[in-house]
Specification:
Radius of gyration: 24 Å
Structural class: mainly alpha
Helix content: over 70%
Strand content: under 5%
Number of strands: 0
Largest sheet: none
Number of helices: 15
Length: 279
């Protein structure tokens, strides 16, 4: 009887599983198509109707990337700005989130409301102001010019505030009874306990920083100071574009992010799931 009920229960979920598989294939298809394009010729990519499977696999497209771009140098610039931005943003977001969650000060609610309002303002609206500031500091064409505007994240502060609010107040009170000052209570007791949310902020910052195109495109014009996202964009010419080479370079640029995400997938999902549940 129990086996019969189990079979009936499994059959009920078959349409759901089919729907989920179709949805998964739909989501993965652009990435598979990108890899196929990276191994095709330009005429095959631009053919109508589109040709998905190349006649002969153009593996040399991947080695040709290194002759058209200073790939390794731009890769290092991307790593440099991503590490800088992520490290500083984690610290600032954690400190600001802790202050909004645990500290009592005048205007806290108003300041947090203004912080949330930043999330509703398109980033393009303050590009000119940011450019003028970076230009006045003489930081154009430098990694610091790229990363400075990204040191602060309203979303990250919001996420960390929710994480700190989910912790029991007794932990902080016990730390202070043991003689910790506010900084020690934050750094030694509370900060390690919000590790899942820190991973969530870290992975979203890494993804955003690695794929950021608009701002680096504005502040860098020389090949040697460009991150990889801008370097790949320069393969698009005014009159013609080498799509095969661009897809090969994009696939290689995505590899580190895929490895990072899949190695930390469980912690990231845990962090996002446990944050934002208490307001």
């Amino acid at each position: 009887m129990a086996r019969k009920q189990g079979n009936v229960s499994q059959k009920r979920f078959i349409p759901v599983h089919i729907l989920l598989i179709l949805g998964g294939l739909f989501m993965v298809f652009p990435f598979i198509y990108q890899i196929l394009m990276s191994l095709s010729t330009n005429p095959e990519i631009q053919s109508v109707p589109p040709k998905f499977i190349p006649d002969s696999w153009q593996w040399h497209n991947y080695s040709d990337v290194f002759t058209r771009l200073p790939f390794l140098h731009q890769f290092w610039v991307s790593v440099e700005i991503t590490v800088l931005r992520t490290g500083v943003q984690l610290l600032l977001c954690a400190m600001a989130g802790y202050a909004f969650a645990r500290m009592q000060f005048k205007g806290r609610g108003l300041l947090f409301g203004l912080l949330l309002a930043i999330l509703m303002v398109p980033g393009q609206s303050y590009l000119i102001g940011q450019y003028q500031v970076i230009q006045n500091f003489g930081l154009l064409e430098t990694p610091w010019g790229i990363v400075l505007p990204g040191f602060f994240s309203a979303f990250g502060v919001f996420l960390m505030r929710q994480a700190f609010m989910s912790l029991p107040v007794e932990l902080e009170e016990a730390a202070r009874l043991d003689g910790c000052n506010p900084w020690q209570a934050f750094w030694r007791v509370m900060f390690p306990l919000v590790r899942p949310s820190l991973f969530a902020v870290m992975i979203t910052t890494v993804l955003w920083s690695w794929n950021d195109l608009l701002w680096p495109l504005i502040v860098t014009t020389r090949e040697e100071s460009m991150p990889l996202s801008v370097g790949i964009a320069t393969l698009a010419g005014q009159h013609s574009t080498d799509y095969a080479l661009m897809m090969a370079a994009s696939t290689m640029a995505m590899a580190p992010i895929f490895i990072l995400f899949f190695s930390m997938q469980k912690r990231v999902i845990e962090g996002l799931a446990t944050s934002g549940l208490k307001g």
